[in-house]
Amino acid sequence: xxxxxxxxxxxxxxxxxxxxxxxxxxMSLANLRTxxxxxxxxxxxxxxxxxxxxxxxxxxxxxLLLLLLDKIGPTMAVLRQDIHQNIQRLEMVHETDSSTxxxxxxxxxxxxxxxxxxxxxxCTRALLWLTRSLDFSVELLQKYSIFxxxxxxxxxxxxxxxxxxxxxxxxxxxxxxxxxxxxxxHKTFLKxxxxxxxxxxEDSLRVTQELDTFVSLLKPLLQHIHxxxxxxxxxxxxxx
Length: 240
Fold this sequence. Notes:
The protein is mainly α. It has a single domain, classed as Glycolipid transfer protein (Glycolipid transfer protein, GLTP, Orthogonal Bundle), CATH 1.10.3520. The chain contains 10 helices and no strands. Helix 2 (17-42) runs antiparallel to helix 3 and helix 6 (123-146) runs antiparallel to helix 7. It starts with a helix and ends in a 9-residue tail after the last helix. The relative contact order is 0.13.
């Protein structure tokens, strides 16, 4: 009996990456709303209200996506490499002026003004592709929450087709199509991502609730980023 109680306590104390992300998103978005509200109160001219994409929050979410892809398995190595390179590109620029570039919109505005935003190795492209990759994670987790009993390959493929495929060239699409054949089963994915016993009905219910919470928090942030990219005319760039 004592052993079971100890295991239960350890399970409660141990947080999955998704649970940690929910806490971080909740706090960061609350701070962002407070900052935006204060700016609106102090300035009646909406044209002077600066958009904000917090660097550390965004990079934290992208690193969470890397962990998610790792747990899907080596099949997603190509996508993972692209995400990792784009994260590094943003981090390198951020390090040159961490105060100014704590808001990723400042990097975007600078590149647009210089005419560099649409170049292959721009930070603007990095921001755009990372946002699309986060779209993929939202779609994947949302579909998994709803269709968890279906074939995992189909869930991942559907998420890819909706979010990334429209912007990928033939080579990238072909590589992903081959990789999808090696996606693990949904039980393996569930255990890896949420670190639970999938045979426990209570755990399964909690997972669904947590995935729904995470998605509901992340979607408005991604919509805001897409809106910012669209305002600067860089939202429809395709892979080169």
